[in-house]
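Ticket reopened. Same input as before:
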Amino acid sequence: MKLSSQAQAFVLHFGEMGSRWGFNRTVGQMFALLTIHSEPVNADQLAEALKISRGNVSMGLKELQAWRLIELHHQPGDRKDYFTAAGSIWDLARTVFEERRKRELDPTLTLLRQLLLTDPRDPQEAQAQERIQEVYSLLEMLDQFANTLSKLEHKDLIRLMKLGSGLNKLLDLKAGAKSKKTNS
Amino acid sequence: MKLSSQAQAFVLHFGEMGSRWGFNRTVGQMFALLTIHSEPVNADQLAEALKISRGNVSMGLKELQAWRLIELHHQPGDRKDYFTAAGSIWDLARTVFEERRKRELDPTLTLLRQLLLTDPRDPQEAQAQERIQEVYSLLEMLDQFANTLSKLEHKDLIRLMKLGSGLNKLLDLKAGAKSKKTNS
DNA sequence: TACAATTTTCAGAAATTTCTGAAAGTTAAG
DNA sequence: CTTAACTTTCAGAAATTTCTGAAAATTGTA
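Engineering reply: fixed in the latest deploy. New output:
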């Protein structure tokens, strides 16, 4: 498991960005390595390539499995577990997107829903609840939208992402149609 | 600066989610507090309400300013600095979105661009570069799309987010039009 | 069943991040 | 200027997160 300097740089960078993406340095590195390396890799190889302990690799793999980002394989005649990234680059990106939605939005939505159940006791509290309601509505809409995006077929997603300023036109078109319908 | 138990819960939760959003606990709490509290608040009030040191508040405010999430105000006859959240809930969400795009995507795009400049030395390296190219293309497209979304007017953004499964239809419509044009 | 290969766990160590509070810096009023 | 009010800085302390490596658990083979 020798990494080219290119691969090395890629892996180290993903390690550094890891924390902004929701996992720690070594998990980021493991993910990067499995992403550029198309052949299945076992835990010892990961530990050696990244110069980290076997225990750390084990924990990292567990986390990547929780994220649904890796797949387990077996080589005939070898008892070791081998791993690859789970699917194409696009599959991985979609999974990261979905998991982040879950982890970054859902807990907050749950809490805010609870907070909105109890009635405000005084005007001060009523005002705060109004703000909480606004935050809730926004996050709820965002969550729904993220869900909609997640469900798009690949070709539709690409189409959407490539629209650029065409998105504006498309939305205006839609708005035009609607107001026509409403007005007639 | 007494916080109702509602507000308290809201603030504490944002503190806990903070790390997933890209800032630390106290910065998350400060942001939450400024978000529900419509009146301007000064540093001492923040320190007292959140039970954190004055120095910590100062650092937190600096960071929130770097995120463009707060606004400085002055009260006549008072030399203290007062702060409010920068704009409406939607303004704040858009700013967080833009800043996160910058912080989570741009550094990676820059690095990958560099990696793709040097030619691969062997087939092994060529293969890794192919993967890097795929990652780059995806992130570049994502970055552009995020940019497009950032630039949408409020009403268009809402429209888009509310489309739900209508998004599918709209995209198919667009595809239909295009293929018609292409085929004719 | 016995055993060897492999993975997982987890207590403590190491590294990193966050926080405090006192000192230094800045600003405005008199 | 001088002084008082306020803000920022930053070294070290505290808290948290990550990592190691040895022991325990699991798994497959003979």
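The CA atoms of residues 26 and 56 of chain B lie 8 Å apart. Residues 5-87 of chain B form a domain with the Arc Repressor Mutant, subunit A fold (CATH 1.10.10.10). Please confirm and we'll close it.
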